[in-house]
Amino acid sequence: MDYVIKTEGLKKYYKNNKAVDGIDLEVRKGDIVAILGPNGAGKTTTVEILEGLRRPTAGTIYYFGEKVSKIGDSIKERIGVQLQKSTFFSNLKVKEIIDAFRGLYSKKISTKVLIEKFNLESKQNDYIKNLSGGQMQRVALACAIVNDPEVIFLDEPTTGLDPQARRNLWDSIKELKKEGKTIILTTHYMEEAEALADFVFIIDHGNIIAKGIVNDLIQSLNQSTFVTFGISGNIEKFNTESVFGKNIEPINDKYEIKTNDVEKTLAKLFSYSRENSIMIENINIRNPNLEDVFLNLTGRKLRE
Question: Which residues lie closer than 8 Å to 240 by C-beta, 6 or more apart?
Answer without folding.
Answer: 248, 249, 250, 255
